[in-house]
Design goal:
By secondary structure, this protein is mainly α. It has eight helices and five strands, in the order βααβααβααβαβα. The chain has a single domain (2-141), classed as 3-Layer(aba) Sandwich (Rossmann fold), CATH 3.40.50.1010.
Length: 142
Amino acid sequence: MLTLDANVFVAAEIRSEPDHESARRVIAIAVEQGLRLHLPWLAVVEASVAIGRRLGDADPAVRLAAELADMPGATFHPLDRTLALLAATMGAECRLRGADAVYAAVARKHRTCMITCDEELRSRTAGVIEALTPSEWLKKRA
């Protein structure tokens, strides 16, 4: 089971991103092998608007939002009271940014490995959740 940070979807879409190939492979493997994904609904918004801003084009952003919302094997979690309080606690304890705390809380609550391209998020959640870069996750599976 995995939780994918929005930046993994962004890296997979933008060729110039350092983690582009490994992010694409992680998503392809997750879909092909039917891996369980636990994502906050926030991922749909964050990934699509990041693509729209970076590319200066709404069409790929809207397409990505629709693809993510229908992603096979994905369970999307709303930011309800329970998740918000867990995210607030983790965010305070690990000194995370707000959105990062939501992804970390989803990973912790559902006991998933979080895949992220964000080194700060990885280092600040060390010992609390398992957080790997796309490349690390691929190497671990090999």
